[in-house]
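The authors assume throughout that readers already know how a fold can be written as discrete tokens. Each protein is reduced to its one-letter sequence and a matching series of backbone shape codes. I therefore recommend that a typical entry be quoted early in the introduction. For illustration, here is how one protein appears when written out as sequence plus structure tokens:
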Amino acid sequence: MTVQYWIAKNVEDPFRNETRNVGVIARDACGIAARFIGERDTGELDRRLLGQRFRYPDVYLQWLNFWRSEIGLGRMDSILKAKTPNYFVVEAGEITDTGGDSVEAVCAFLYSLLISEAPVMEAFELGEEEDLTRGLDSEISHALTELNLLADAPKFGVRHPVMREHPVRGKHVVHKPSFSQKNGRLYVYEAIDFTMKRPKIVRERAGWMAYMYADIKQEDETAETFSIFRPNSDDGGETVEYAKKILGGESMLVNWADDNERKLFLSDRQRVATSL
């Protein structure tokens, strides 16, 4: 199922034009969901959650009440038409292949990624996953280091080294992919380990990677994205098939355990790094 979503934005000082996201509205064929700064997970308003974010919090709350009222009536057109230099809602895009996730779950996912001040990885409950993927990341780093392709210590003639966690701008947020490279064209590489024992983590990481790729490609249509995976000893079941499908729609899949695919990937990195 496809979910369309919009982002509510605030510009405290129009002269400086520093825009920030304050809410997300998501809609699919079954319904509509929203989440805004100042609301708890239950949707209940708690002014304490506003903190010092707003110079005029009462003005923000007036807009929040208006958005909530119009959402309740299903009037997205009215929300999009109502705008000032300080507050407005913009169409942000859509997410496809959401599987069995409800529109509420997708909305919460987008809020955690685009608005919440919690770390992005925390939004996906991936603290445990960091330990599980570190091995694959290390293997990739080691292979790139042996070829003197990492930006940490590139050899002479490597004009475009591979960078670790270098900021890459997407249409909506700035990402820090595990690996990236630029030679006129942007290349983004991210790893996923299908040997993980928790299917939920595999699905969430795949969803995060696919969103990152799509967001980056909306900003730079020429960008090329690669998902480097360690295969499961068996077929991995429904979870791995889901992950491969969602990642395959946004990136090229590279089986790190396959000698030919790994060598071809590394050879291409050398070509990009050394060409003019």
